[in-house]
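B., you asked whether I could sanity-check this one before it goes into the benchmark set. Here's the sequence:
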Amino acid sequence: MDSTRPSPIHRDDSALPEVFIYGGGKVGRGLARASRDAGLQVTLRPARDGLPAEPIEADLVILAVRDRDIGPCAEALRDRRLVGHRDAAVVHCAGALGPEALAAVRGRRVAVAQMHPMISFASPAFAPFLERGHLHIDGDPAAVRAARSLGVRLGMAPRTVTGLDRVAYHAAAGLVANGAAALAAAGVDLLERAGVERKTAAEMLGPLLRTVADNVEVLGVPDALTGPVRRGDAAGVARHLETLRRLAPHLVPFYVAAAATQLPLARALGEAPPDAFDAIQQVLDGT
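And here's what the prediction gave me:
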C-alpha cells in the first residue's frame, strides 16, 4: 500500500470536531473566536510559541501562518510526528497556494487541503462577520469534507472551483479588500477636508461600504453601480473633479481611474444615451 496516500477519514459529521489552530494572528484569532462561538472545541496556539511538544489531538488542524511558513510547518508536523497518530485533516488558509503546499505532512491517516476564507481579517482584536462569506476548499476528499463541515458550522458558503487560477483568485480578493480600504482612506481624507471629523468620517463610510457589499452580493455587477457615472452626468463628474483639484489634488488620479472603470459598467446598464457617456470620457481625458 502506498503510505503517502491518505486513507478515507471516517467521522460523524454531526459530531462537533475538535479544532487546533496554529497561528495567533488576524486569521487564526478570527477563526478561533468564530469556531468557539459556533460551539466547537478549539485550541489556539500562537506561532511564536512554536509547535507543541506532544502529538496534536484534533480532527482538524488549521495552519494560519504566513505563506512562506506553510511548507516548513508541514515538514515539522511530519518530522516531529505531531499528526498521523489518528485520522486528521491538515489545512492552510493561504489563498494563492493549493493543497500541495502541505504535501510533506500528507499520509495514510492525514489528509490535506487549502481552506481560504474570502474574508477581510484586519485585526487580531476584531473578529469579522463570517456568515455568508465564501470559503474556497480544495484538496484530499477527507480534508475537504472536514473543512466544509467547519465552514457550514460557521455559516459560511464552502465551494470548490475546479481548475482555479489561485494567484488570480487571490489577487481579486486583495484588489477588492485592500482596494476598498484604500478607497475608504481617500474618502476619509476628503471628508476631513470638507469639514467632517476623522472618526466621524470613518463611521459614515463604514455603513456606505456595507450597502455597496450588499448590492454587489444581491444585485451583482454592473447593477450595483450608482452615482453620476451610471446616470451619464458629465457635469456632475466635472464638478467632483473641480472640487478635488481645489481640496485634494492628490486624489484626482484615484477618482479618474475609478470613474474610468465605472464607464463600461454604466454603458452596459444603458440608463443614459451613449453620447452622455462619451461626454464623461471627454471630462476624464481632459484631466
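One thing to flag: Confidence is low (pLDDT under 50) at residues 1-14. Otherwise nothing jumped out at me.
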